[in-house]
Request: fold
Amino acid sequence: MGVLGLGRMGQIHCRLISECGGLQLVAGSSGSAQLRKSVEDGFDIRTYADHQALLRDPQVEWIVIATTTDRHREWALAAVQAGKSLVIEKPIALTLEETEEIIAAAQRAGVRLTVYNSRRWDADFLFVRKVLADGSLGEVYRIESRYTNFNRGWGAWGAQGESNPWRLKKAYGGGMLGDWGPHLIDQILLLADSPLRSVFGKLYGKIWSTEVEDHFFCELLFESGVSVLAEASNNHRIPQPRWVLVGTEGTLRVEGGSPSDWSPALIRRSSAGGIEESRHELPRIEISTGYYPALVEALQSGAPPPVQPDQVLRVMEVIEAVRKSSSSGRSIDLG
Reply:
């Protein structure tokens, strides 16, 4: 494995790969001498000042693209041309058109492609999925999924910090929809298990930036009749619940805020004696570690890598629909 882009997220990839049995981290690349030294000292790997040099490294079979989003297309296409398999940090690209171009190029070249939608392995999502599967809430017809916080460091979450808060800048692909949208929408599409019929969305840039949104929401209506609210905001001084599921036999709520606060889960169900309540403490971790073990399992079994291109395409279709809906003020029909 080689990591292209050694900023804050790139170094997280380095750590997760180095801790995962079955994968070998061998190289990385960055234009920053300081970041290269940090990675060399921390992981004892070779680094390159030139991304193209990393792509020429014959020992590297997989490239992890961990640059800012605006560079994903450029380096994904270059890696495909070099014959490397790809893990791309989410979102895969700036637009649906770029996404289609990357996927088509990988398919033509016969290289494997997957995207780091890592929150499929979050404890809260796995718990919600389990509760849905066991049917204890009855018919679940309403789902609300939110990331709401008020974090002064959100825009500067990157290698350059306050000197270049790229998440607040359009040119880099910043904004809350690109940051949290891929996670929330990917999870919802897995939970709903039904064709998506319409999307209504709204983007707001109110506190942290006027270039990009610091708050978005979207209402998704599925063919099954299930309706979903997906919302992410850095403007909530009082966080909203991470999850709310409403069913005919019960309701589930998971506390919100930052990821390390996503617990407990509370379930209330109707019973012969009135209301039955159960409380479930969930593991509280900032970044889940399940993605790379799942990749290893897939590669060892010969199965496709986790997070398939067609799934990524569906997520990007919804993100584009949210943008179109916000601009037009109308629902977007996907049926």
